[in-house]
Amino acid sequence: FGILEFFSTSIQEPDEQLLTELDVLGRQIGLLAERRRIEMSQKEIVAEFECQMTAIDKTQAVIEFMLDGTVLTANKNFLRMMGYAPEEILGKHHGMFCEPGIVESQEYQDFWAKLNRGEFDAGVYRRVDKGGETVWVQATYNPIVDPWGQPYKVLKLATDITSQKVLEEALKSR
Predict the structure, then answer these.
(1) How many CB atoms lie within 10 A of CB 164?
(2) 122 DSSP β-pair partners
(3) Continuous segment of H or E residues that includes residue 113
(4) Is residue 22 within 8 Å of residue 115, measured between CB atoms?
(5) pTM for this structure?
(6) Cα gap 124→156, rounded to integer Å
(7) Rounded alpha-carbon distances, angstroms, from residue 83 to 22, 131, 134
(8) What are the residues facing 134 on neighbouring strands?
(9) Distance from C-alpha of 47 to C-alpha of 68, rounded to nearest angstrom
(10) pLDDT tens by residue, 120-153
(11) In degrees rounded to 5, what are phi and psi of residue 76?
């Protein structure tokens, strides 16, 4: 019956109720389409983030700290570089990787205060591995912030440059 009327050649008055229902249906379809677009965008963002993290994990020594310097996590590259097993460092303080006396210094205290303010730090750092040997790293300490902009942990990305530093020192001593 409705189909015949739809294709009828006679001019009829618009059915206001039908127009209202079609308008509501159209809006709902539009909202569903927008939701689908957003969901796909979010999936793409998550997938890209995961790929980036995988690439970083493959090439960098990565360690995470609480704002007080307590070790939260470390990847295999970091553990291999420093000669530790995870259980030897998790829950311990960053100071275990520093030379004696450094942790008590004002410079070290200022370093952690800076990170706690949400400011990153980058440079070349002299660290000590499990065997007491010097390890030189090119690194960044990156405060990670919550949705309100407050730092809640620190992510360190590092590259071992010990061989370069040894070579530099050998060339200087010539």
Answers:
(1) 13
(2) 140
(3) helix 106-116
(4) no
(5) 0.73
(6) 12
(7) 68, 7, 12
(8) 128
(9) 31
(10) 999 999 999 999 999 999 999 999 999 999 999 9
(11) -60, -35
